[in-house]
Design goal:
By secondary structure, the protein is an alpha/beta fold. Helices cover 42% and strands 15% of the residues. It contains 17 helices and 14 strands. It has helices spanning 9-16, 24-30, 56-59, 68-80, 93-105, 119-136, 157-162, 166-169, 187-190, 197-215, 241-251, 273-276, 304-317, 330-345, 348-365, 402-412, 434-457, and strands at 35-39, 42-45, 50-52, 110-116, 144-148, 179-182, 220-225, 255-259, 283-286, 298-303, 372-378, 381-386, 418-420, 423-426. The protein binds pyridoxal-5'-phosphate.
């Protein structure tokens, strides 16, 4: 049924859209913020109000909201070959060149790619590849998968199971069997009062080893981790953490799946978070900034060793019986290729290295704010942690909604930030300039001050 002509866009939205990660009641009460256009690092709502998009959409719009070359690349490909598929004995040039380009910039040895349309799908593909691989190499019992508390790997059945956040499991009957979660590497949240960072790292690494031994190493197939946890609140790994973890994975012959859905393509100040933290992935997932999010495309990269096992299995079974209609969609692939070309031409990694200290120093300066327990980040992603008591590192009761209040005040000041658990996070487009970083920090500071006044008003402090 069509709405009456005078129904507002907001009402039409509320009537029909179930928004991801939303409370339908809240959306119905206050209506969604409807964004209608973008320019550089800014977006505009339907009333013309401008916002600095300090979250780059969903940690993803690396080149901002008006890169003409991406629109042109899409238009060229639409005019040449708008769709073709790569099942069986077909292929097309954008897919071939993109796979080559990815292999050439990825961590060493990741020579093969399986394309999909989203991070979640590629995580699920990683799970299937891990299982398939172990069946081929005569280790069919090696099927359990380890994620981490507060880690995020999407929402599909396997990805959502690996995600270590209770609200993503509740009432969805997740996690599925065979998924285990080990510690988060957040020293701020989980370090014991008298524990040094080194002791904390040693304890959680020992916990991982104990978990593996308890379950039986012969049953553990893979460990999944983001180099920097994103939606877990921008958790930067402590010194020495990944070194210890990788040694354990090697010791027990456990595959390492690195989820670079947020950290891929310059975010941490290197092309991949794997370079920043010296990771040696067996499999690696990319999405989001692969196309600056202008079109949906993701990829699972993996090693020759894994490819050979898959090829053996395919020979035994007749085919590698996995694939999705839009895998390596030619228009998405063409836009991804243009995105990678722009990263190279503009040396996006050097740009991030150059401007990141300003963002990180600006966040660090907020450490003295009465509401802030910790600030953290790397490259162009960061967070401030809200606290009711700096000495106790205690967060506010989530029911008070202080994070959401600060997020809404930031909006009022013209910047988009995101409240996640007890933190407020920023992850701006990689093209952000020093002047724009200052504007983002200024909006965040003002929103925190509003949050402080609000908390005092309510008697929470
Ligand atoms: C680290 C990480 N992995 C996986 C995903 C899932 O990606 P998508 O939302 O494209 O399915 C996300 C999404 O934010 C993510 O941050």
């Amino acid at each position: 049924m069509l709405p009456p002509a005078d129904t507002t866009l907001r009402q039409r939205d509320v009537d029909h859209i179930l928004h991801p990660y939303s409370s339908p009641q809240k959306v119905a009460a206050s209506g969604p913020l409807i964004i209608s256009r973008g320019q550089g690092v800014y977006v505009y709502d339907t009333e013309g109000k401008r916002y600095l998009e300090g979250m780059a959409g969903l940690w993803s719009t690396s080149l901002g909201f008006s890169e003409p070359r991406l629109a042109e690349a899409a238009a060229r490909q639409f005019a040449t070959l708008p769709y073709s598929q790569i099942f069986g004995d077909r292929s097309h040039e954008p897919a071939i060149v993109l796979a080559e380009r990815l292999a050439s910039i990825a961590p060493e040895g990741l020579n093969h790619v399986l394309f999909a349309n989203s991070g979640s799908e590629s995580i699920d593909a990683a799970v299937k590849i891990v299982w398939y691989h172990h069946n081929q190499i005569g280790k069919p019992a090696k099927k359990k998968l380890i994620g981490r508390v507060n880690g995020y790997h999407g929402v599909t059945v396997a990805g959502g199971s690996l995600t270590g956040q209770p609200n993503i499991h509740a009432d969805f009957d997740l996690p599925i069997a065979g998924i285990l979660h080990t510690d988060s590497p957040s020293y701020y949240h989980f370090g014991k009062p008298d524990e040094s960072i080194e002791q904390f790292v040693a304890r959680i690494a020992d916990n991982l080893e104990a978990l593996i031994l308890r379950e039986g190493p012969e049953t553990i197939g893979a460990f999944f981790a983001e180099p920097v946890m994103g939606s877990g609140g921008v958790i930067v790994p402590p010194q020495g953490y990944f070194e210890r973890i990788q040694a354990i994975l090697r010791k027990y012959d456990i595959l390492f799946v690195v989820d670079e859905v947020i950290t891929g393509f310059g975010r941490t100040g290197e092309m991949f978070g794997s370079f920043t933290y010296h990771l040696k992935p067996d499999l690696l997932v990319v999405a989001k900034a692969l196309s600056s999010s202008y079109l949906p495309i993701s990829g699972l990269l993996f090693t020759d060793r894994i490819f050979e096992a898959i090829a053996q299995g395919a020979a035994k079974n007749g085919v590698f019986a996995h694939g999705i209609t839009y895998a390596a969609h030619p228009v998405c692939a063409a836009v991804a290729l243009e995105t990678l070309a722009i990263y190279a031409e503009r040396d996006i990694v050097a740009h991030v290295k150059q401007v990141a200290p300003q963002l990180q120093n600006g966040l660090a300066a907020l450490q003295n704010h009465p509401l802030v327990g910790e600030t953290r980040g790397v490259g162009l992603v960061g967070a401030v942690e809200l606290t009711q008591s700096k000495s106790m590192r205690a967060g506010f009761d989530p029911k008070l909604g202080l994070g959401a209040f600060i997020q809404s005040r930031a909006l009022a000041h013209g910047v988009i930030v995101r409240a996640l658990r007890d933190s407020v996070v920023v992850c701006p487009p990689l093209i952000i300039t020093p002047v724009e970083i200052e504007e983002l920090l200024d909006g965040l500071r003002r929103a925190l001050d509003d949050g402080l006044a609000h908390a005092r008003d309510k008697g929470w402090l």
